[in-house]
Write a structure and sequence with these properties.
Helices cover about 80% and strands about 0% of the residues. The protein is mostly helical. It is elongated.
Length: about 60
């Protein structure tokens, strides 16, 4: 149980990396001249959500 919680916290911290990239991309989307459906935006968003969901799932797992 303790191991899952520790791994969940590590994944939660790792989810901040794609969140940072996604934030930068969304703030500068016009300067980058890319649409919201660009693969860069989709991959950054899905990576953030996936890591966040898995980290919460591992933290709550008994």
């Amino acid at each position: 149980m303790k191991r899952n919680r520790k791994l969940g916290l590590v994944l939660l911290a790792l989810s901040l990396v794609p969140l940072g990239f996604l934030t930068y991309t969304l703030l500068n989307i016009e300067a980058l001249n890319i649409p919201i459906t660009h693969p860069r935006v989709l991959i950054e968003g899905s990576s953030f959500v996936a890591l966040l969901v898995v980290s919460f799932w591992l933290s709550k797992k008994k």
